[in-house]
Batch of 4 targets.
Target 1
Amino acid sequence: MDKKLIFIILIAVILIAIGGYFIFTGSSGEAAENSLDIPLKTQDFKLFEIGTPNGSDFKIKNEADGMKFYQNNGSYSANFSGIIINKGLTESLIGDISFNLANSSSEQIYSSQFKNETIYKYVSHQGDVDVILIGNDLNLLKEVSGTIKVKDAGAL
């Protein structure tokens, strides 16, 4: 098996485990009753800008050639726990245990179950890169997806 493929699969397993850990431990941050109650602020990640919940704290958790994973360690991390920006790695990063709920030319929505909790992976196609939004509030992820502005895909 190709070393790059093994590395990508390993990263996908790690990302799924991180999401599961936060769900299992309940340490995933403050969860809002309604995503409409969550004010968004524009956050600049150099490669892209995106509206994130006020009080969230996204930091790079993992990066590899063609992919960066940002984890929310602040407020609303249950609602919106992570962002992955990648080039051509989405299928590997979604994983086999996710179910495809919606599929179009501009977006895909997947879900996974962790201890009776549904985690969504909202894939927004932005030209030659995909931005994967991860969390348990699908309405918030859809709202946030409308704020994505890729600035420097070449640096990925």
Note: Residues 3-25 form the longest helix (23 residues).
Target 2
Amino acid sequence: MKKSLRSRTVASLAAAAAISLAIPGAANAADHSAKSASFTDGCATGMVTPISTWGQIREFAKNNARILEAVPNDQNRVCSPNSTVVGDPYKGCGYNRANGWIKVKTFGGQWGWVAMTCWDDAPF
């Protein structure tokens, strides 16, 4: 007996659903990846954290500005609320030609700028 494309698709979806229920944390994986697509809303909490492995704080809102600090994604930095400026366009963290930058303080206390789409608001 020949199986139709529809019955094979339904069987595949049922198997995937059964596997995701059987593996702890599999259902949360979709939530995590959807959340990682978000980015800071102009420093709403006063703290931000890099979305990528390392977030770069630059001296100016320019791609070729000197890097003041590279911040690992497990650390937060203080940001200046409502400090969003239009700077050099960049391609990063899933966005092309984004140009929003926010003001962030380095660990050493110097203010710099970060590509807005590569940082997310951290809980305070």
Note: The longest helix spans residues 5-22.
Target 3
Amino acid sequence: MIQTLPLALPGTLVDHHRLDLTALYSKGWGVHLFDVVGAPNGEVYALYGVSRHTYGVARDEQDPQIANFGYRLITRYSAAGEILASAQFRTGGAREGGSEVADGGDLSLCVLPDGVLAVTGTPDRTTLVAPDLSRVLAVYDSKDDRPYREFTPGEGNPFAGSITVTPAGRLLCTLAEYGVWRYGNVITNLVGIADGALTADSKPAIRTLASLDPEPAHQSAVDLRPHATYRDAPVGLANRPRPALTELVAAEDSLSGWDRSRLGRPVPLSENLFVVPFYARTFRGGSRGQPFVFALVDDRGEMTGRLHGLHEWHDSPFTGLCRNVAADPHRGHAFHLNRYGLYAWNKAGVLRAKLDTATKAFKPLTHFTLGSCAPNGDLLLAHTKQHLILRVPAPDDLTALAATVEEALREYGRRRTALKKQWSPVNWHWTHDGPLHRI
């Protein structure tokens, strides 16, 4: 079923801060999407942020109508597309006070097999939230903010920086390490799988499968990861999966040898096969044409292939930094959307469809970002300027993808018009007065 869902701001937040929705983002405020995921019962969760930073306003300004602010928002939608509830917490989460959430970088969502919502961020921060968004159930926080804060070994209780669920309920995770590419902070470097359940009372061990930087620098015994293992020993120091992914394709990055490359969020293509994206370093002057790999890694840690068919220049994900990959593990389909097209592969890594954004029918896709695949395979896209989620039904046969997406884009226009009449948005900013939880 095609759906169009608004990324709505709580009306109480807009009023409390006297937020001018007509102002340009160049004035210091903005709304930004982090992730959108589906639940097995057909519900959808979206994670996004709103912030305002005005030059010259003091950090300790007490008037909320003037003060700078930042919030993360989670909105829950019913299977019919209605907003059921929202939750908000301040940027910085527990570090800044007034929230239990372990906020971090590269925020993402995951609906766990028991229906609990996991909010993840780097480095290895996982917060479990009740499905109705009413409260925080548990927090697994690395408490590692090096180099900005002194690190106290044993103080934190980390889990993962991102999580996706396999068809059998295993957890595909990413983990961070200190000293990656010789930096003095903690950066995502590992991919692993957890066989047990993640609950408010316990966390499963993570068996690492792949690494990006094979030899992070400056590590000591305090950098071992007891909850993550390789060959039955804690990951860290010289113990991690080798050869690293970058070593397996070393010749493909002749410019920088994969130095300062970046690991994307892995997704399951089947129960035992995963897509692990990684990207060469970015440059200030533009990175189009830089190498990237969508590797196929099995649950034994072997790179068995890749998603083929993309050109480093003509299909570059570096334009607009479109790094997301989504997958439907039940059908064995993988998807990627960037400024040049929507791409779809089968389980063997063969490119089966490319919807070229240079064509009139698919040019509107340049305004969308790819979120994820819902459990039933539907594609969840988000319009970056109109702040709307588009749910696209997944075809069983990828040869039907073009017709399906073309119809979804036409329907998006009709539903967007209906929503405008119903919601009366201001400059494509939607507001609602439904239940709001502060977590």
Note: The helical segments are 11-16, 245-248, 401-423.
Target 4
Amino acid sequence: MRIEPERERTEAEVAAERRRDLVASLERERDGYKVRGLGKRVAEVDAELKRLGADKQPVTEREATEPRETAVESKPRRTAARGK
């Protein structure tokens, strides 16, 4: 079996990959702000996504500013000594 050498990518392919990575990064950043209820920062990231032509569906003002519950209830700790 013959292994083909990796072809050299064009500038356009590299630029497209960088843009996809940037958009994915901004979307993760946006999700983090949304979870923490930082509506102003969500709007700023949305503006940048829009500038890049990758804007998401419009977010309502309430959705952008309303914090989401993210805590998970932990199991009760065992209080009795083991093996005694």
Note: Helices lie at 11-35, 39-51, 61-65.
